[in-house]
Amino acid sequence: MESSVAYDAHHLGPLDPRFKAVPVTAWGEDAAAFAARRPRLQDLPTPLLTLDAGALADNVATLARWTAEVGVDLAPHGKTTMAPSLWREQLAAGAIGLTVATPWQLSVALREGVDWVQAAYPVLDPAVLRWLSAPRSGRVLVWADGVDVVERMAPHVRDAAQPLDVLVELGGTGGRTGARSLDAAVAVARAVRETPGLRLAGVAGYEGAFAHDASDASLATVRAWVDDLAALHGRLTEEDVYPADVPGGLVVSAGGSAYYDVVVERLARLHDPAAGVRVVLRSGAYVGHDDGFYREVTPVNRVRSGRLRSALHGWVRVVSRPEPGLALADAGKRDLPFDEGLPVVQAVRRGGDGDTEDLAGYAVSAMNDQHAFVRFPADVDLRVGDVLRLGISHPCTAFDKWGLLPVVDDALAPQPVLVDWVRTVFG
Fold it and tell me: Which residues does the UniProt record annotate as the domain D-serine dehydratase-like (predicted)?
């Protein structure tokens, strides 16, 4: 189903060669006027990364509906897309706010008017801390995982117009950042509580650092860590470390896009806004989903509630057939993600303008900066000029390669057409 959401075409203005998705024939043409003509894929250049309008809308609706059903909040990770128009769609669907991963991303979210932002990292830049200490509307929450982090923040917030909310980050051995034990995390919480300009506002962490698949062993590891996060929140409550009054309530936050079902299974009982506690998921990759890593590990496979489908597809043109069973296509590491698996060949458009036909037996075996090596049986017909549709793995390293993405009505249709544009702001 095609989405009725308007993204960025209406305010982009004239198209130009700054964006590699723009065909030379559209240079100087208004973006909205170009989209209104509903050009077909053959009118666009390759390589190309497209967004599927229907999949985007379905994915946003699916997670919004599920979080409402299970009774938790969602502040999707904005770093996945860095696309304000997609953020607005997620917020309109019910997200409480956004999560970000760098001070610059935080500044973009606030500039875009997002009034609830979780910065899932320790803010140590003195200029940013002073900026956050000035009078502002909305709520910003930052993380701290060590007493040393709190000490580095302290000089720059002591004269804050309003306290800066801090979540204590719990980690674990072999993980990423985060206090390595409950005792260490409690010590961080006490340091925050005693520092003028800071306000202890809850606990957080990232369970995805401890597992990378959906095996029973990985799910058990994630459950154990989430239980530790709940135990940390319990200790801070029982030992009266939390302040008596935290505007907006305490926050217990976890949940990437791979294990949010486990987080809800173990933490949903804590969600009680009337009592001043919110459980907040941070899933972000779900909006684009993929045909690789997230397709395999997505909680949708376990909870059987709704569906997620890839909204991202690569389109590449065969530019060389140098030997039997090998084709070189015109997309590489600068165009498509490769860190969580190589793209997957799904279909072909003969001559670049034929109807989309499903393919089997083809595989991308390697990628250079600007080329993909496509292998297939030597007796299979594949010609220079044919355009392949590729499924991708890991949306987080797909969006950042494109400043402007075409939105098509249905990427799986025989003849997809462009209906809008999405602008990203990765800097």
Answer: 311-409
pLDDT digits (tens, 9 = 90+) for 304-343: 778 999 999 999 999 999 999 999 999 999 999 999 999 9
pLDDT of residue 381: 83
- Adjacent-strand bridge partners of 360: none
Q: Is the pTM of this model over 0.85?
A: yes
Gap between the Cα atoms of 382 and 372, Å rounded: 15
- Write out pLDDT tens, residues 96-121: 999 999 999 999 999 999 999 999 99
E strand or H helix that includes residue 233: helix 216-238
Rounded CA-CA distance 307/60 in Å is 10
Cβ neighbour number for residue 102 with a 10 Å cutoff: 16
Q: What gap in Å lies between CA 114 and CA 100, rounded to an integer?
A: 11
For residue 155, whether the previous peptide bond is cis, meaning omega lies within 30 degrees of 0, is no
Which position has the token pair 């006490």? 190
Regarding whether 401 and 342 lie in a shared domain, the answer is yes
In angstroms, rounded to a whole number, what is the distance separating the alpha carbons of residues 233 and 182?
A: 10
Confirm whether 302 is domain-assigned.
Answer: no
Establish if 1 belongs to a structural domain: no
SS3 percent helix, strand, coil of the chain, rounded to 5, is 35, 25, 40
Q: Is the pLDDT of residue 1 over 50?
A: no
Strand 387-391 with 98-100, pairing: unpaired
CA angle 369–421–29, rounded 5-degree value? 100
Local structure of 67: helix, strand or coil: helix
Residues 56-76 have pLDDT tens digits of: 999 999 999 999 999 999 999
pLDDT in tens, 3-51: 567 999 999 999 999 999 999 999 999 999 999 999 999 999 999 999 9
- What is the CATH number for 146? 3.20.20.10
What would the two tokens of residue 351 be? Answer: 């001559």
Among 297, 270, 329, 272, residue whose Cα is nearest residue 393: 297
Look up residue 106 and give its two tokens: 């935080």
Residues 255 and 361 both lie in one domain: no
Q: Which residues contact 302 (CB under 8 A, 6 or more apart)?
A: 214, 261
